[in-house]
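User: I'm preparing a small set of examples for a lab meeting where we compare how different chains pack in three dimensions. I only have the primary sequence for this one, and I'd like the structure in token form so I can line it up with the others. Please keep the answer compact; I'll paste it straight into my notes.
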Amino acid sequence: MSDAAPPEVPRRADLDLLRVLLCGAVLLIHALMVHAEDPRYHVKAPESWWPATLLSHGLRVGALAGFFALAGWGSVGALRRRRAGRFLGNRAARLFVPLAAGLLILGPVIKYIELGQGRDLRLAGFRLVEPLAMPFGDFLPRYLTRLSLLTWSHLWFLAYLLLLTVLLLPMLAALARRAPLQRVPSRAAIWLPGLGLGFWLAVSGGYWPALHNLVQDWANLGHFALCFLAGAVLASWPGLEARLRAEAWTLAGLFLAGLAGLLLFGPSLPGRIAVGICAWGAIGAGFGLVGRYPPRPSAALRWLADATLPVFVLHHLPLLAVAVALLPLGLPPALAIALTVAGGATVALALHGFLVLPQPALRRLMGLPSGPPALPDAALQTSRL
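Assistant: Understood. Below is the structure token output for the 385-residue chain.
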């Protein structure tokens, strides 16, 4: 493919909004996990709260599926404008660099908090341990010299996304070379991707347990690959996007039906089918609703959309710190969750705006270009994560 790019497409405010909503959902998931039933988390409240369990399941299925789909959509757009080699170099800078920085800078503190809570999430799985009682200065050299202590925490998403980008590059490039397909599929066609995702999870035994350590997580990696490809297909098939907009509320109902099946059947064959249906409902409803009710473009929306990757990288440590500080207070779970989300989001946005953006070196560490931010009119949606 030559470097001569097709005419630049205007930035899509609807997908900017979707990206911001998904990033906010991730923050909420992490706050909910403190109070949800699943024990595999860095910090846990003494007792679980059933609304947190319900919401964490729905958001975890929907937000992750949506984020991978959005990344697939952006990858096809980026490959329309640059060679595969330059595309991979760009993705390495946007994904591998913040992943490595997070392992070395954020990982030690997150692991210190986790062990201090008597919990240990590692490659082999999850276990309860005696709470760590040593100064952080003594723990840091251990973290940096013992592979078993390394944690990528929430940054597993970047590792998975980078791996999928490399593995699926031929398919992404083929979709990018195709002329956009304008034909609008039938209403019946919108059900097929959900059945496909459900079938994969059923035969592979995916979703349960949700321990994203890559080595033992091939079933979920395959699920995320299918979500990623769903977004890539959407980028090459505007007619399918049009169908999603027309059926957006039906797809939202499909998401809720899948969530109900997940909660009803649990870790079983029908439960896993329900997870796939829930994931596709979230992807379809997400793209469909923001396209059906697009926001007005604004500088604030652009700024927030551009901040999603740094905020995603930075938010988890302050969020965990706030959660640890709130637990001894015995607050009602809903209030504790709200304060935890607000605290994590506020610190992450402040770090991004006042520390990361002004410093070229920190911009690179967060996966952003080292130069000053591009002017809004020159920024392309297809170049985003």
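A couple of notes for your slides: The beta strands are 119-122, 125-128. Residues 1-7, 374-385 have pLDDT under 50 and may be disordered.

User: Perfect, thanks.
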